[in-house]
Amino acid sequence: MELVTHKKFKSGRLMPWGKGTVVSGAKGTVYLCGNTATSDDYDPAGKEGGFAGDAAAQWRAVLGNIKSDLEELGSGLEHLIRLTFFVRGPFPDGGVLSSPNYRLDVLDAFFAKHSPKHCSDNNPPPSEVIGVAALAQPDIVIEIVAVAALPD
């Protein structure tokens, strides 16, 4: 399998997301549903349990869940094709990147430890950052959808 993420540049400056990823020779694709930072006692049917802490803690928990899920399904962080971030407001300056719930620093620290090629200053997969007024539960601040290749 070959997975090539093409870097995105604007005026000669590297952007913190990839332009696109070309995958060839993969056995398949893994599509992960939106991951949130649910606590161990979370029960959506019984509306019990909660979510893991502040924005930084939620980002770390979600990214850890994605890593575990990919490995369980036969893939891994190194095979990421695309990420979609749903970030709950507030948006003090009007844009999603101004939200205290958008934590690129946590994302980069996680990838520096687990898959350095995906740090924002290296060659991260293509991604979208979408600002939302609410997510499934009131204390969720981040939800991440991931797509990865399934190596042969």
Q: Low-confidence runs (pLDDT<50, min 5 residues)?
A: none
CATH class: Alpha Beta
Which percent band covers the strand fraction? 25-35%
CATH topology grouping: 60s Ribosomal Protein L30, Chain: A
Number of helices: 2
Question: What composes the largest sheet?
Answer: 4 strands, mixed
Mean pLDDT, rounded to whole units? 90
Summarize the amount of helix as a percent range. Answer: 10-25%
From the N-terminal CA to the C-terminal CA, the straight-line distance is: 6 Å
Count of beta strands: 6
Computed Rg: 16 Å
Organism: Mesorhizobium waimense
Protein name: RidA family protein
InterPro entries: RutC-like_sf (IPR035959), YjgF/YER057c/UK114 (IPR006175)
Pfam family, one: Ribonuc_L-PSP
Blueprint of the fold:
Elements (H helix, E strand, L loop, with lengths): L1 E9 L2 E12 L3 E8 L19 H18 L7 E9 L15 H11 L12 E6 L9 E9 L2
Protein name: RidA family protein
InterPro entries: RutC-like_sf (IPR035959), YjgF/YER057c/UK114 (IPR006175)
Pfam families: Ribonuc_L-PSP
Describe this structure in words.
The chain is α+β, with helices and mostly antiparallel strands and 152 residues long. The chain has a single domain, classed as 2-Layer Sandwich (60s Ribosomal Protein L30, Chain: A), CATH 3.30.1330. The protein has two helices and six strands. It is globular, with a radius of gyration of 16 Å. The mean pLDDT is 90.
